[in-house]
UniProtKB/TrEMBL annotation:
Domain Lipoxygenase: 1-452
Name of the protein in question: Lipoxygenase
Domain of life: Eukaryota
Lineage summary: Eukaryota, Viridiplantae, Streptophyta, Embryophyta, Tracheophyta
PANTHER family, alphabetized: LIPOXYGENASE
Function noted in UniProt: Plant lipoxygenase may be involved in a number of diverse aspects of plant physiology including growth and development, pest resistance, and senescence or responses to wounding.
EC number(s) per entry: 1.13.11.-
GO function term, MF aspect, one: oxidoreductase activity, acting on single donors with incorporation of molecular oxygen, incorporation of two atoms of oxygen
Annotated PROSITE patterns: LIPOXYGENASE_1, LIPOXYGENASE_2, LIPOXYGENASE_3
UniProt keyword annotation of S-adenosyl-L-methionine present: no
SUPFAM superfamilies membership: Lipoxigenase
Stored Pfam families: Lipoxygenase
Swiss-Prot/TrEMBL cofactor(s): Fe cation
Isomerase listed as a keyword: no
Organism annotation: Aegilops tauschii subsp. strangulata
Amino acid sequence: MGHTMTVAEAVKSKRLFMLDFHDLFLPYVHKIRALQRTTMYGSRTIMFLTDDGTLRLLAIELTRPASATMPQWRQVFTSSTDTTKSWLWRMAKSHVRAHDAGHHELVTHWLRTHCAVEPYILAANRQLSEMHPIYQLLRPHFRYTMRINALARSALINGGGIIELTFSPQRYAMELSSVAYDKLWRFDMEALPADLVRRGMAEEDPTAEHGLKLAIKDYPFANDGLLIWDAIKGWVQAYVSRYYPTAASVSGDAELQAFWTEVRTEGHGDKKDAPWWPKLDTPESLAHTLTTIIWVAAAHHAAVNFGQYDFGGYFPNRPSIARTNMPVEEPVDAAAFEKFLDNPDQALRECFPSQVQATLVMAVLDVLSSHSPDEEYLGGMETAPWGEDTTVRAAYLRFNEQLKAVEGIIDGRNKNRKLKNRCGAGIVPYQLMKPFSQPGVTGKGIPNSTSI
């Protein structure tokens, strides 16, 4: 930490952050290791928030749990001027990047967007008539989702598919995703403000902008995402207030209540009795629920999808798989360790994805990060309300103008040299929350729906 403070002081001042892939991955370490050409650890990575607002990587802990034939092995790796330790540090970082890539694809991306949106689509089409105002509000945010999910189940996440071929969990990929759903998914935590608070990246503060005090002031996803969240929230509140002026009008809408009951009891049957489900009994609770659904389908998905090629196309920056164990893992393989000492660069490349895996992931990320020519963007005029209700049309026009203003704000932030997490030599400008885009791989643009 540059001798700036003690660990206790860093903890007290909330300057330490953890990237935690320990508890979720640990039960699968030995199962995954029984497969060919892959490996796994439980990992914890500690970072320090420096005075200039950037995170400094401090330490990586890799853990292999005990088995019937081996005791637990655990070691902490840090940066070092010693050449052997510095190469071990590089390898440890490669393992954590592979953990992050797998968690991102299976949990943050597939589970929390593609998977979670399906029950809303099915329940809406079953329970809401096409002319129902809430169906009309949500319909643009369901475009192509069922189709793209069907394609994913046939080529990406299926048995023997691309995910199993190229990511560390291999055949346990979907099982891991399901376990993450069971342990972690909650509807009330999918709203952006609640998500930030839950992850320790913000705390509620009524006096702060957006009602949140960020743990890292220069956190591009949070800063830009909250602008989008507030814009969606304003549009949805205006829309809901037009059709549901009272609590009785919400609770008395049989179709609306049937829709939400099906989402909870059929779409999430194993969580149907959880106490955190919101009740649709006031205009406020309805607006917040709909804002959350739209945020997940549009903005959350855009944030985790359309930057994948920029950050993961160059595979050493984000390897999808780690194929070899750490050379110092006990019991140490003497021959492998000598090979590592003789040619650490070769040892690192053998840990990286194979040429076939890297090429396949690169091609898939290029496709996933691309906008189609017929893309419909959040707040775009192509999906403006078509009815003659001037109040609703005026609210949508305000939504459109607000999103255009957000684009300018983001451009300004990306040129602000004080914001070192998004501006500087070698830093990718953060554009993922810019609402509009041209076709192709642009690293920006928020489509209405989870459509790729």
